[in-house]
Amino acid sequence: MRAGYAKYPITPSVSTQRLAGYIKRKDPFTCILDDIYIKTFMLEIGSEIFVLSSIDILAIDNPMFNDLSKIIRDITGSENFIIAATHTHSAPATLFRDIIAGIGLIEFDSDYYQHFVSMFEKSIIEAYNRLSKTQCRSTTTITKGIASNRNDPNDFFDDRVVLVECISNHGIMDILNYNVHPTVLGPENKCVSRDLAGSIEDSLKNTTGHDYIFLNGAAADVSTRFIRKNRSYDEVLRLGALFASNLLLSLSNAKWVNIDSEEIVTRREKIGLKVDMKKLESIANIKSIKEVINDMIPSKSMHILESVEEALEALRIIYRSINYSETAIEVSAYVIGRNLGIITFPGEALSRLSAECREIAGIDVLFAGYANGYYGYFSDKFPPSTYEDIMTLFMHESVERVYNTIRRLCLWIGGSLLS
User: Fold this and answer.
1) Within its chain, how far is the Cα of 227 from the centroid?
2) Quick check: helix, strand or coil at residue 84?
3) Rounded to two decimals, what is the model's pTM?
């Protein structure tokens, strides 16, 4: 078994670009709080290669995924890869050509995109060239006090952290899988930043000396909303340091399992989806968004009301731009060795889906959200009452089909590990 790692900056040099993630933020960024990166991990087991790239941007839209996956295929010959976004809301919006990732606003910058693609290719080449003998292990633990269910802090959310650690002659590299909207910085922020994901990586590296890749998970309804003291960069640093401290304390009692089998097993499934055009049309015809919000969720707090208002406005824009009523997504499941499962999800799933998956599989599972494409939110709750529910573009039956497919793949992971 061999592993390789590479990290390349993709921080824009020209301040003419709007930051992604908040529809009300229109102005270009004005400063850089910390650099954003492409981080690539590569694992070779026998004749198979597995690639994981985590990128400090809002999403991996579908045209981008097609371009980047071709690079991986051309360099490695592998079909086993995950290209995921950390989902920072403080990176440029100018990489997207898909209306869902761009929230209906396309401001594509071809020069910056070509630079971005070039950095991605370099990261794949370097990780491939640095493949060296490795020993890997995994564990699942919990860290408290960083995030909560963002609609009700007393509701359930999956607060588990799954770590995969590989030791080679290049050092120690950890993949850290955690469900959270890493959005301490709000719509008033006009500075480029990795936000909480970057602070977590940096705080852990400063303490342990390891390299870390933050892999976001099923984070549709998870954030720091009820935990953070404010929306400053100092708070980003505080929460990142607190996460690192809590995680390292929990790891003192963690049970690690070695990844030692010479095998990567893969299963992929395509799922047809129908856009809820009736819902989009009804939202597009709303004359007063505020009145609809008050009728729909009169008892919610102000910040939830504001997020729902933003969701309705975003859907109105998307409705004017969307050019299809049906589509399909692909989800993948991997078994690496005999004790590690991986699920890919091309969008934002509710946190309980990763919890269900891990219970079904009965083993460490990396749940890679925002990965291999982006189709927005997938909430199976009905009737809709939260931002996640409202922002779901697809019909309820389609979302249920997606969730059931994920559950079936998680069952397959558990069965594969036992066989």
Assistant:
1) 20
2) strand
3) 0.95
